[in-house]
Amino acid sequence: MPSIVTEFIGQYGELLGQGVLDTLVMLFISTAIAYVIGTVLGVVLYLTSPGSLRPMRALNAVLGWVVNIGRSLPFIILLISLMPVTSALVGTTSGVRGVIPPLVVSTAALPIYRVPLRGAHDRAVARRGSARERGSG
């Protein structure tokens, strides 16, 4: 007599496996793209901030505003608003391919990754400055 779990796996195992695979594809592709975009945004925002290497107040203000507005949008609104762009980029607005562009925008262009990157860079610069003051740099 097969157990309920064995019966369930036998009936839905292929569907579950495909669902797990689709989820992992969405996760890894959107995360990789988000890291690239987030890194670029973090570096540009740091470099253009006042007192940095290339201060550009207007660019920094505009990029900061765009990023902060994007952070406050709930994902479902973002998903719906990006449907035309998603369709143009990947040819569909549903399924695994259709969700990757909104995931990228929500995690990269929106500073989920950019904020920690900038904080880490600021701490590294502060440590380097402290080492120079002590005469070891």
Determine the mean pLDDT.
Answer: 83
Radius of gyration, whole Å: 21 Å
Structural class: mainly alpha
Profile the largest sheet.
Answer: none
Number of helices: 6
Report low-confidence residues grouped into runs of 5 or more. Answer: none
Backbone shape: elongated
Counting DSSP E segments of at least 2 residues, the number of strands comes to 0
Distance linking N and C termini: 73 Å
Quick recap of the structure?
The chain is an all-alpha fold and about 140 residues long. The protein has helices at about 5-45, 55-70, 75-80, 85-90, 95-110, 115-135. It is built from six helices and no strands.
Fold and architecture overview:
Helices cover 81% and strands 0% of the residues. It has 137 residues and is an all-alpha fold. Helix 1 (4-47) runs parallel beside helix 5. It is elongated and about 75 Å long. The N and C termini lie far apart (73 Å).
Sequence-ordered SSE layout with sheet pairings:
Elements: H1 4-47, H2 57-72, H3 75-81, H4 83-90, H5 95-109, H6 114-134
What features would you highlight for this structure?
single chain, 137 residues, mainly alpha, 6 helices
